């Protein structure tokens, strides 16, 4: 792994409480998929075009109609305000400064309106509850605050096991006020608020109609599932190899025009600035963008 990335993880290990660092760094169950995800980056190789004019390299692209400075964005990550008091607000400012896309967790500890006020391009990540109507206020708040899409997580009807080790868990040591501030009061105690176990393609239609926003379906691994989502009206498919893992694999956002095997793709990375050594996140976000610039030129894939 890149020494810079390793240094970020080590900085976090030293600065964060043991339960918080353990939660952010571990995968589900034995962590097999998240460990493979780190190693898998070594398998990627660029096949550059030659005899192209690279006097000026331009990494700009568009993702669902939004122009961004590079095809790299920030994935939804919970507990950001437990890592740093400014949490999602600092992440949004850094992402906006880098000209990239930010995906905000529905469990965020910062009001959507404050995130939107930074000028960042952002999407909302959301789960659906058993009683779909309970999601309506959350979707409305996101749309009102300028969210440009809803990322519907579909691979977590049941939360995967995490071996949290001895001692207190992160949920026992984290102030509840740092989470889920965009939900209605007492949402968690409302009948029907548990995650839906009966998700289907019709929910893509419901989310799109309720929010008025394009829907990106997150957590898809199989081509046949991807086709079902596209047929139901998904604006994009988010291939996620580490479900329920906050610091898991990078993921590809695939436009439906190519379905899951062809077409341009963008990368959404697990929030690299999520470390106390760079609370604004700006250095890390800029490093991510500049690294992409170094290896990517016009026409490269």
TrEMBL record:
Keyword Oxidoreductase: yes
Keyword Oxidoreductase: yes
Positions with biased composition (Polar residues): 277-301
EC class (word): oxidoreductase
InterPro entries to which the protein is assigned, alphabetical: Aldolase_TIM, FMN-dep_DH, FMN_HAD
SUPFAM superfamilies: FMN-linked oxidoreductases
Region (Disordered): 269-301
Pfam families: FMN_dh
Entry keywords, A to Z: Oxidoreductase
Gene3D superfamilies xref list: Aldolase class I
EC number in record: 1.1.3.15
Protein name as catalogued: Putative (S)-2-hydroxy-acid oxidase
């Amino acid at each position: 792994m890149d020494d810079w990335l390793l240094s970020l993880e080590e900085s976090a290990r030293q600065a964060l409480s043991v339960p918080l660092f353990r939660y952010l760094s571990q995968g589900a169950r034995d962590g097999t998929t998240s460990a493979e995800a780190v190693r898998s980056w070594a398998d990627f190789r660029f096949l550059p075009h030659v005899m192209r004019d690279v006097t000026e390299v331009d990494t700009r692209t568009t993702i669902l109609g939004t122009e961004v400075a590079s095809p790299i964005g920030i994935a939804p990550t919970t507990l950001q305000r437990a890592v740093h008091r400014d949490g999602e607000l600092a992440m949004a400012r850094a992402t906006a400064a880098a000209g990239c896309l930010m995906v905000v967790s529905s469990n965020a500890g910062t009001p959507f309106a404050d995130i939107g006020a930074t000028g960042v391009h952002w999407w909302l990540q959301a789960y659906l509850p058993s009683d779909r109507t309970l999601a309506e206020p959350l979707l409305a708040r996101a749309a009102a605050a300028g969210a440009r899409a809803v990322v519907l997580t579909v691979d977590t009807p049941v939360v995967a096991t995490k071996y949290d080790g001895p001692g207190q868990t992160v949920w026992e040591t984290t102030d509840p006020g740092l989470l889920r501030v965009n939900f209605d009061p007492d949402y968690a105690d409302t009948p029907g608020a548990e995650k839906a176990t009966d998700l289907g393609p019709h929910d893509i239609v419901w989310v799109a109609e309720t929010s008025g926003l394009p829907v990106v379906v997150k957590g898809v691994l199989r081509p046949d599932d991807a086709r079902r989502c596209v047929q139901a009206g998904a604006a994009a498919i988010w291939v996620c190899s580490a479900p329920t893992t906050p610091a898991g694999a990078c993921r590809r956002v695939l436009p439906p025009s190519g379905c899951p095997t062809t077409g341009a793709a963008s990368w959404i990375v697990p929030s690299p600035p999520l470390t106390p050594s760079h609370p604004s996140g700006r250095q890390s976000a800029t490093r991510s963008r500049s690294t992409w610039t170094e290896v990517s030129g016009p026409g490269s894939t």
